[in-house]
Amino acid sequence: MGREIIEEYVRQVTETISRIPVEKIERVVNMIYQAYARDRQIFILGNGGSASTASHFCCDLGKGAVVDGKRRLRVVSLNDNTALLTAYANDFGYESVFVEQLKNLIQRGDVVICITGSGNSPNVLRAIQFANERGAQTIGFLGFGGGKAMEIVTEHVTVDNSNYGQVEDVHMLLCHLVSQYFRDMVMNGG
Predict the structure, then answer these.
(1) Which residues, at least 6 apart from 120, have a Cβ–Cβ distance to it below 8 Å?
(2) Which one of 33, 50, 87, 160 is least enclosed by Cβ atoms within 10 Å?
(3) Which pairs from 162-167 meet CB under 8 Å and 24+ separation?
């Protein structure tokens, strides 16, 4: 019984990966590279497991994508300051934890990457709307049907799957793929 569960899970994830539109990944990497070329910042955010993925992605872009002798990408995870998150949640409500941070930091031409399984979290949607209003580019790593986020981000890669664990697995794969592709672009001058 256990072996079948394992094989089925692997089959489902593999099938899900095969349905990812490669052209969307290319557009996401190009958006990040263009922001890098213009010395703009990247902000990454998510809730729950996606918050962990956002932190990991920030590390991959901020350290793993470094090329000796080249300027580094300025990237920040909005999940990682517990004191700030809880202060904003306490004073303004959890739906404002990302927007309030962006108010301090975002500039026109920056990129906000939201990682969300459902695409419907109020705090993520508010962050996307605020970033759009401020002239930033917005990217969604989404799951399920993309949710409301799919309708308002500049670009998205939607994982065609309705299992949270598998969506999060593929989001992590996307983060590694994007950061390594970006590093390659920096190394080769675009």
Answers:
(1) 147, 148, 149
(2) 87
(3) 163/12, 164/49, 164/117, 166/9, 166/12, 166/13, 166/16, 167/117, 167/143
Q: Could you say which residues of the chain have pLDDT below 50?
A: none
Non-local CB neighbours of 52 within 8 Å, separated by 6+ positions: 46, 79
pLDDT in tens, 41-78: 999 999 999 999 999 999 999 999 999 999 999 999 99
Give the span between the Cα atoms of 59 and 48, in whole angstroms: 17
Q: Which of 34, 119, 64, 185 is nearest to 42 (CA)?
A: 34
User: What's the confidence (pLDDT) of residue 190?
Assistant: 83
> Using an 8 Å Cβ cutoff, are 154 and 137 in contact?
yes
Q: What gap in Å lies between CA 6 and CA 29, rounded to an integer?
A: 32
Q: Pick the closest to residue 113 from 175, 187, 67, 21 (CA basis).
A: 175
The contacts of residue 59 (CB under 8 Å, 6+ apart) are none
Please give the model's pTM, rounded to 2 decimal places: 0.96
How far apart CA 77 and CA 115 sit, in angstroms, is: 11
Q: What is the mean pLDDT of the chain?
A: 97
CA distances from 99 to 58, 136, 174 (A): 18, 13, 25
Torsion from C-alpha of 110, 23, 161, 182, nearest 10 degrees: -50
Contact (CB, 8 A) for 112 and 137 = yes
